[in-house]
């Protein structure tokens, strides 16, 4: 083995990473080529010997093809990697220098080339080194942890959108749900029926279908009602927000209804027997008590909506899940990406779960 | 003052009140006794329309309250009601429980309502509990606050629906004492009760109800001393 091997120090690797190191390596490469041509024209004997070696190699079945006009020259092995600046190991031994690296003078043969760089996965490949120029390219994959670190800002950006969508939707849901929930319990038959139909429809159909109904189903209707008949496309953000709000409203309505009905009938009777009207009793006696019981389930609704809001990714809302889909199509790394998405969701839901549990505990003691 | 004519109440197929006719005079204390399920409470609740009568008429000071045109809230404001389970508003202090009616219904100022509330708390002996929440009061104290709350509206009559049934024995007396004071002041009272002692001692008239009708009525001396009806006799022999 004619390879000159030396222990690679950290400083050498670092030098290869900077710009100067790269250009130096490039120059050396061109110089190597001209030297090779010189030798080609000058020394016939060397060529003969090389040809002999090649022949031998061919007979032993190691080399698949002869390297044409470069046959009989010195070997040049060019190792590049993306990203650059990786340490190189030849047959397990560290080689002085970092990628892009040109190694000359290797005896032809089969080598195990390994490249390693901090925060990237080690790559290795068997390379058949023949006389002349040999090129080997490595594409280094980030380690899982480093990959997650790199995509974290994108995921967090998506999480901000998810959180934003959820907060607005649940807020709207509370407004809608308070009216719908009260409409279910007030002594007006028509209101009961309308609110009941609303709640049953939006709790009884999948949120995904509701999103499609609004985003794809509504534009033609809007077109024929307010336009010239051609569909009026909806902004995905608007569709997502309305679908989530209306859906949340139905669930909140049930929470409010249950909250109101959980208050002892005697409370309403006592208030009415003082001469209060139904609305006065509702406002001063029933609702203040119901609000306390409604807060923990509303917290749960928020957590549920946080998770369900991922469905709006199907209409192209760039929230957490959609962001992850885009990342995966670019990086082909679904495992870490989706694990990361799960972790980000957990980071959002766990604190809220804790808050809800705490609220439940506190409200129980003061009830 | 209160006149009831042929009052019927049905809950679907269940016929609870089967024609009640009676009259309660101003300042009178009437006790309604009878076995459970006889319709005593339903009758009382009909008097301020917490239950809507199926049939029959109720007049209060000549006003037919079973008429649909009558403002039910005004009628109820004139009738104080005390419940078996107190039904105090748990999110309000004792004082707030007593001021909410006058402020919301009578449109009194908060200061005026509080002044009256303190007077009522004095009357039921609970001034020092004014700022306690119902959960921190004993059953007897809660019921006394509930009586004060009902009185806060200056009602023309007071309806008591088994006011001592949910109380521990040692708390019954403090509530009955308040009710006795009230009776002495000349308040018109209708009391559904199992407290035979109270009925005998305080009431002017006792109604014995069974199976949705008034079986027998008369002064307590007659009902307890010399009951005429077989059902009255058998009921009293069990409870006395």
Describe this structure in words.
The complex is a heterodimer of chains A (367) and B (240). By secondary structure, chain A is of the alpha+beta class. Helix content of chain A is 65%, strand content 12%. In chain A, the strands form 2 sheets. Chain A has a 4-stranded antiparallel β-sheet with strand order 3-2-5-6. A 3-stranded mixed β-sheet of chain A has the order 4-1-7, with helices on one face. In chain A, helix 4 (144-185) crosses helix 7 (236-261), helix 4 crosses helix 11 (334-366) and helix 8 packs antiparallel against helix 9. By secondary structure, chain B is an alpha/beta fold. Helix content of chain B is 38%, strand content 25%. Chain B is built from 9 helices and 10 strands. In chain B, helix 3 crosses helix 4 (110-123), helix 4 (110-123) crosses helix 5 (139-151) and helix 5 packs parallel to helix 6 (169-184).
Question: What are the salient characteristics of this protein?
Answer:
heterodimer; A: 367 residues; alpha+beta; four-stranded antiparallel β-sheet; three-stranded mixed β-sheet; 12% strand; B: 240 residues; alpha/beta; six-stranded mixed β-sheet; 9 helices; 25% strand
Cα(first) to Cα(last) distance of chain B is 31 Å
Indicate the overall shape of chain A: elongated
Individual helix count of chain B: 9
Number of helices of chain A: 11
* Number of DSSP strand runs of chain B: 10
**Strand percent estimate of chain A:** 5-15%
Mean of all residue-level pLDDT scores of chain A: 84
Q: Please provide the ordered H/E string of secondary-structure elements of chain B.
A: EEEHEEHEHHHEHEHEEHH
Which runs of chain B of at least 5 residues are low in confidence (pLDDT < 50)? none
């Amino acid at each position: 083995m004619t390879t000159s091997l030396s222990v690679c120090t950290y400083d050498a690797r670092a030098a290869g990473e900077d710009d100067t190191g790269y250009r130096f390596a490039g120059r050396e490469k061109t110089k190597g080529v001209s030297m090779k041509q010189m030798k080609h024209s000058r020394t016939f004997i060397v060529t003969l010997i090389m040809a002999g070696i090649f022949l031998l190699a061919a007979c032993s079945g190691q080399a698949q093809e002869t390297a044409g006009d470069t046959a009989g020259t010195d070997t040049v092995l060019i190792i590049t990697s993306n990203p650059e600046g990786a340490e190189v190991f030849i047959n397990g031994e560290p080689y002085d220098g970092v990628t892009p690296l040109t190694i000359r003078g290797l005896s032809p043969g089969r080598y195990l080339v390994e490249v390693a760089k901090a925060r990237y996965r080690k790559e290795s490949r068997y390379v058949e080194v023949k006389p002349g120029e040999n090129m080997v390219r490595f594409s280094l994959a980030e380690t899982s942890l480093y990959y997650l670190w790199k995509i974290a800002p994108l995921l967090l950006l998506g999480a901000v959108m998810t959180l934003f969508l959820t907060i607005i939707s649940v807020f709207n849901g509370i407004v809608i749900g308070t009216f719908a929930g009260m409409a279910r319990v007030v002594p007006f038959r028509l209101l009961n029926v309308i609110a009941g139909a609303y709640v049953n429809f939006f709790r009884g159909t999948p949120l995904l279908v509701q999103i499609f109904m609004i985003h794809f189903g509504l534009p033609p209707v809007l077109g024929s009602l307010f336009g010239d008949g051609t569909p009026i496309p909806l902004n995905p953000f608007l569709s997502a927000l309305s679908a989530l709000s209306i859906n949340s409203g139905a669930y909140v309505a049930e929470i409010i209804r249950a909250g109101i009905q959980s208050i002892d009938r005697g409370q309403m009777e006592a208030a009415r027997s003082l001469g209060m009207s139904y609305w006065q009793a509702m406002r001063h006696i029933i609702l203040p008590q119901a609000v306390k019981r409604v807060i923990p389930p509303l917290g749960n609704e928020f957590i549920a909506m946080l998770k369900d809001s991922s469905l709006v990714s199907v209409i192209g809302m760039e929230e957490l899940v959609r962001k992850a889909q885009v990342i995966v199509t670019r990086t082909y790394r679904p495992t870490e990406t989706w694990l990361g998405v799960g972790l980000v969701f957990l980071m959002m839901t766990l604190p809220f779960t804790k808050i809800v549990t705490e609220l439940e505990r506190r409200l129980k003691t003061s009830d | 003052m209160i006149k009831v004519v042929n009052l019927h109440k049905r809950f679907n197929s269940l016929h609870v009140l089967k024609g009640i006719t009676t009259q309660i005079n101003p300042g009178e204390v009437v006790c309604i006794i009878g076995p459970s399920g006889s319709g005593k409470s339903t009758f009382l609740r009909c008097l301020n329309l917490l239950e809507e009568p199926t049939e029959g008429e109720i007049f209060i000071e000549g006003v037919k309250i079973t008429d649909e045109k009558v403002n039910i809230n005004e009628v109820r404001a004139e009738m104080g009601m005390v419940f078996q389970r107190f039904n105090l508003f748990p999110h309000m202090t004792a004082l707030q429980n007593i001021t909410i009616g006058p402020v919301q219904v009578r449109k009194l100022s908060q200061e005026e309502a509080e002044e009256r509330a303190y007077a009522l708390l004095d009357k039921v002996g609970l001034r020092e509990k004014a700022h306690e929440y119902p959960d921190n009061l004993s059953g007897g104290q809660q019921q006394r606050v509930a009586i004060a709350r009902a009185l806060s509206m200056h009602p023309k009559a007071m309806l008591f629906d088994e006011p001592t049934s949910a109380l521990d024995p040692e708390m019954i007396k403090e509530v009955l004492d308040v009710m006795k004071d009230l009776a002495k002041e000349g308040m018109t009272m209708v009391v559904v009760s199992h407290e035979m002692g109270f009925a005998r001692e305080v009431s002017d008239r006792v109604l014995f109800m069974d199976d949705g009708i008034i079986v027998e009525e008369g002064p307590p001396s007659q009902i307890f001393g010399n009951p005429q009806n077989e059902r009255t006799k058998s009921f009293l022999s069990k409870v006395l």
